């Protein structure tokens, strides 16, 4: 099914305690595409990302990963936990606060899910992990424990961990927001390489230059609604709405 | 013949009691620990009737003396048609009682476990069981290590209560030797030294296990 | 269970309560005294106290009660059961309390002491007016926790024939031939007493948390 989009979101809505954080959001992410989700804090962009792998359960709407509906079936029945887990395994996620498993070495952080979720043979998982850690420039820290790493190093390991699942799509939830300014570059560098290699990525970020250089599509969320979507050049040079113009001015 | 010669002559009594105490302790501590882990696993997930009930059972154990539970199993259960011998009732009581305490101390650590590592596991498609065994439980054990050590020593000491329901363990051995030969001082010195020995071994072992956590940056001290 | 058995049960509860109460009272003060002596780091005495604490923490209460009750006569001391029970409980709880007090000492911040010295207070005044009140607050949750442990351990005194709340259930069932009701009733009484202590510990913890800024 090569034609099915990696992620298809239809009319997604979500409220917390009666406050609507997402309203009728539609979004399609094609294979190999990089989509950046921008917006000021509280605009619902992280919630949107976390709905994609059902860490948050939307109130209405449908999400399909590679054509397969996540969370509930078309009749609205809850998906069995095991099936949900299997579908989540097809996505990778990189968190703002890294969320590496502190009791495991860097290598085991990367091999853990492939071995124990996907059932990959240990030898093969280790071989893949070595390659991926090499790709993100962390091969020299394979035996280290997470607490010894800098934020940028942790996030690069987290990216290798996501790649190890050979995901259909990688979700980045503000991956550089918790980093010291001088460490942001190393993480964005790795992400740029990934986009060049054709990975499908959905990125929630505040890094405008990155979004401009790497995205195929930029989406702007405001109060839970997508008010603008465009190719990056157009978005950054000729925004249609006053709201986006203001936002970009502030980010200059 | 000095008092110590008598003690030496009665060494088989002490050894039998010591071995029995060791077996009772090892068996009940191990099973109580497993029970505690199982309970904490069952408590994973949103609030529900059975989970509230489980929390209640833990809290009841926390307000009861161990001996009352042993009484309940040994003297009380026969009324309901279940007759256990003293040894089985005693070990059963130790498992249930300390299982609840292990569960409580692991639950305490679970509540304050940073949510991110669990969320990452969920996002990577771990099932609840695999996630508990591979991501949650190891972190809980590393974080509760000193408390587990304390609880083990308490469990060891609680085995002595079983002498009251006629189990022939270490303290019972001292009591029977002293009443036969009238040498309470020597008999109890030997037995207290043996308890001390076991608890020091436990403490050293638990301390050694701290290296796991230290290597992983869990212990700041 | 009739009125008479309830009365017996309450007598048992009273025995548990007063013996534990006396042991708690002496144990808290003795624990403080031991902690103070340890802070002075007097050679030999310090080592002796370390061994005492380690031994007391490792010795089961049942064993300790028997030891005291049976060994005293060999030294020509006539030992009353209740006193043997109180001594055993006290020796045990004082060791734990000493560690709780000491932890409170060790966590006392150097800055506060310096601030007090800068105000011109003498060491004695600092101890009485600044350290002790705070130490009491920080120690209280641990001390109350230890009190509930003591009550949970108190049935050990039954082994030398004291008729406490646990032992009394044997007495009652020897007459009624129904062991279950008195055991359940005793369990309920323990639950009430220890629940109150746990509640108190909760309150003490909240108060102590206000000290740590």
The main pleated sheet of chain B reads as: none
Q: Radius of gyration of chain B in whole Å, from Cα? A: 21 Å
Distance between the termini of chain C: 53 Å
How many H/I helical runs of chain C? 8
Overall 3D shape of chain C: flat
- For this structure, the CATH topology of chain B is MetI-like fold
The stretches of 5 or more residues of chain B where confidence is low (pLDDT under 50) are: none
CATH architectural name of chain B = Orthogonal Bundle
Descriptive notes:
The complex is a heterotrimer of chains A (252), B (221) and C (213). Chain A has 252 residues and is of the alpha/beta class. Chain A has helices at residues 45-52, 81-88, 106-118, 122-135, 151-163, 181-196, 208-214, 232-237, 242-251, and strands at 7-16, 19-29, 34-38, 60-65, 68-69, 91-94, 169-173, 201-204, 217-222, 225-230. In chain A, strand 7 (169-173), helix 6 (181-196) and strand 8 (201-204) form a beta-alpha-beta unit. The longest helix of chain A has 16 residues, at 181-196. The mean pLDDT of chain A is 93. Chain B has one domain (3-216): MetI-like (MetI-like fold), CATH 1.10.3720.10. Chain B is built from nine helices and no strands. The model of chain B has no long low-confidence stretch (mean pLDDT 93). In chain C, helix 1 packs across helix 4 (81-106). Chain C has one domain (3-212): MetI-like (MetI-like fold). Chain C has helices spanning 3-39, 45-58, 61-71, 81-106, 110-118, 123-153, 168-176, 180-211. The model of chain C has no long low-confidence stretch (mean pLDDT 92). The longest helix of chain C has 37 residues, at 3-39. Chains in contact: A-B, B-C. Chains B and C meet through helix 4, helix 7, helix 8 and helix 9 of B and helix 2, helix 3, helix 6, helix 7 and helix 8 of C.
């Amino acid at each position: 099914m090569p034609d099915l989009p990696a992620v298809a979101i239809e009319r997604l809505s979500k409220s917390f305690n009666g406050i609507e954080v997402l309203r009728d959001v539609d979004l399609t992410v094609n294979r190999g595409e990089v989509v950046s989700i921008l917006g000021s804090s509280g605009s619902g962009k992280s919630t949107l990302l976390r709905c994609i792998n059902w860490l948050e359960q939307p109130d209405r709407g449908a999400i399909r990963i590679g054509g397969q509906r996540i969370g509930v079936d078309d009749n609205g029945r809850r998906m069995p936990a095991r099936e949900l887990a299997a579908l989540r395994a097809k996505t990778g996620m990189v968190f703002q606060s890294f969320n590496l498993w502190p009791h495991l070495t860097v290598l085991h952080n990367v091999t853990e899910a492939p071995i124990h979720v996907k059932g990959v043979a240990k030898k093969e998982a280790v071989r893949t992990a070595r390659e991926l850690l090499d790709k993100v420039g962390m091969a020299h820290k394979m035996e280290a424990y997470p607490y010894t790493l800098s934020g940028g190093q942790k996030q690069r390991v987290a990216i290798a961990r996501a790649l190890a699942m050979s995901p259909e799509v990688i979700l980045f939830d503000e991956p550089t927001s918790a980093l010291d300014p001088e460490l942001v570059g190393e993480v964005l560098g790795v992400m740029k390489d990934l986009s060049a290699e054709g990975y499908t990525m959905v990125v929630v970020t505040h890094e405008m230059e990155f979004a401009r250089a790497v995205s195929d599509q930029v989406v702007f969320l405001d109060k839970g609604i997508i008010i603008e979507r465009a190719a990056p050049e157009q978005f950054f040079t000729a925004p249609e709405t006053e709201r986006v113009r203001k936002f970009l001015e502030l980010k200059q | 013949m000095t008092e110590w010669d008598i003690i030496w002559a009665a060494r088989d009594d002490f050894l039998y009691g010591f071995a029995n105490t060791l077996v009772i302790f090892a068996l009940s501590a191990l099973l109580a620990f497993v029970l505690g882990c199982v309970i904490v696993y069952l408590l994973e997930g949103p609030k529900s009737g059975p989970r509230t009930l489980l929390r209640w059972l833990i809290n009841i154990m926390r307000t009861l003396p161990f001996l009352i539970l042993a009484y309940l199993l040994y003297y009380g259960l026969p009324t309901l048609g279940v007759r256990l011998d003293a040894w089985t009732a005693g070990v059963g009581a130790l498992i249930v009682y300390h299982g609840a305490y292990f569960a409580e101390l692991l639950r305490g650590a679970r509540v304050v476990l940073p949510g991110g590592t669990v969320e990452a596991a969920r996002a990577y498609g771990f099932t609840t069981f695999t996630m508990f065994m591979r991501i949650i439980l190891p972190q809980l054990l590393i974080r509760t290590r000193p408390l587990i050590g304390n609880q083990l020593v308490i469990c060891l000491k609680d085995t002595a209560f079983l002498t009251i329901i006629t189990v022939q363990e270490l303290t019972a051995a001292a009591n029977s030797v002293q009443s036969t030969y009238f040498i309470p001082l020597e008999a109890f010195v030997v037995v207290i030294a043996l308890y001390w020995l076991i608890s020091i071994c436990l403490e050293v072992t638990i301390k050694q296990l701290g290296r796991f956590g230290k290597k992983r940056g869990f212990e700041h001290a | 269970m009739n009125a008479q058995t309830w009365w017996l049960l309450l007598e048992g509860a009273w025995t548990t309560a007063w013996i534990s109460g006396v042991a708690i009272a002496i144990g808290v003060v003795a624990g403080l005294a031991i902690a103070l002596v340890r802070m002075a780091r007097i050679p030999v005495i310090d080592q002796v106290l370390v061994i005492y604490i380690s031994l007391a923490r490792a010795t089961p209460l049942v064993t300790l009660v028997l030891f005291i009750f049976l060994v005293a006569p060999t030294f020509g001391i006539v030992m009353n059961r209740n006193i043997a029970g109180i001594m055993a409980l006290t020796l045990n709880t004082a060791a734990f309390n000493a560690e709780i007090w000491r932890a409170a000492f060790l966590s006392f911040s150097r800055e506060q002491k310096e601030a007090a010295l800068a105000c011109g207070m003498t060491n004695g005044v600092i101890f009485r007016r600044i350290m002790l009140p705070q130490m009491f607050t920080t120690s209280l949750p641990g001390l109350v926790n230890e009190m509930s442990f003591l009550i949970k351990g108190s049935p050990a005194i039954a082994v030398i024939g004291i008729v406490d709340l646990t032992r009394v259930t044997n007495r009652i069932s020897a007459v009624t031939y129904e062991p279950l009701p008195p055991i359940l009733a005793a369990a309920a009484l323990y639950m009430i007493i220890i629940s109150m202590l746990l509640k108190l510990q909760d309150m003490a913890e909240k108060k102590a948390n206000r000290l740590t800024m």
